[in-house]
Amino acid sequence: MPVRFIVVLMSVLALAGCERSQSPPVGWTAEKDQGLAWVKHAAEFQALSLQAYHQAERALPGFIEDKSWSALPGQSNAGDLAPAIIFDVDETVVTGVSFQLSVERPVNQTKLNQWNSTHEAQAVEGFARFANAAHAAGVELFFLTNRPCERIDGVDDPCPYKTTVINDIREAGFDVAADHVQLSYEQDDWTKEKLVRRELLAQRYRIIMLLGDDLSDFIPCVRSKPATPCTEPGTVDGRKRSVAEYADYWGNGWYILPNPMHGSWLSIR
Question: Engineered SS bond to 267: which of 98, 118, 221, 224, CB 3.0-4.6 Å?
């Protein structure tokens, strides 16, 4: 084994062990899950999150004032519509790293819901300040998550995960209204492809910003398993071409948060 790799591995193991009360899950290894240790312990993660939200906050007044501006490609003649911002939730508003580090694999929605029922959500740095500043400026904030709207055995609520998402956002520091949170499958055509939900909001609002941690929070049809209305799977080369195609938006209406733990990229590598 190369000396350099051994040094890096020992550093990650030491870093992951800094918080004695946090036991790694069964099957966890530093080699496989360095991303978890980085999100949990690295000051760089905090700095990147603050950088994204601070940049968005500085740009906010200009985007509100410029009635010709939209962060949604294809949206035009929307100057008379009220401004709105679309957020992802997981790893954009709240970070699930403590859940990821403690849960026994495989991860699923039931385990996440159980975790959230006994733990307060951990906000991504910078979110609360930015969200409340945007709301105070008269911008509507919408939260699109791919946590599913599906039943849980023994629970009467037909969409119980929505309550959890709403509580997570509120615990992160923003008092969101229930009708501003949208889950996948909450409506018949609301698949994991968020394009449909973004376009629906664009009928009523001028979308001035998008914030997320996954390419699919910004660009349609980049997932490995296409969902309606997409018909072709995303590819490594196709995703990279899409990033280049929309180069002018990154840091200019589109703000992406770091997430090396999970996401659509893992199924396409």
Answer: 224
Distance of CA 165 to the CA centre of its chain: 12
Model pLDDT, residue 32: 57
What's the burial of 18, exposed, middle or buried (CB within 10 Å: 0-12/13-18/19+)? exposed
**Residue 19 in this model has a pLDDT that exceeds 80:** no
Closest CA to 210 of 126, 125, 85: 85
Beta bridge partners of 95: 122
Give a yes or no: residue 205 inside a domain. yes
- Provide the number of structural domains found in the chain: 1
Whether 79 is covered by a domain: the verdict is yes
pLDDT at 128: 98
Average pLDDT for 9-19: 40
What is the structure's pLDDT at 214?
97
Query: Are residues 63 and 69 in contact, defined by beta-carbon separation less than 8 angstroms?
Result: yes
- Evaluate whether residue 115 is within a structural domain: yes
How would you class 58 by CB atoms within 10 Å of its CB: exposed for 0-12, middle for 13-18, buried for 19 or more? exposed
Euclidean distance between CA atoms 104 and 106, whole angstroms: 6
Global pTM reads 0.87
pLDDT attached to residue 63: 98
Sequential DSSP letters for 185-231: TSSTT--S-THHHHHHHHTTEEEEEEEESSGGGTSSS-SSS--TT--
> 43-65 vs 127-136: helix axis angle to the nearest 10?
10
Domain membership of residue 160 as a residue range = 44-267
Q: What is the CATH number of the domain that holds 192?
A: 3.40.50.1000
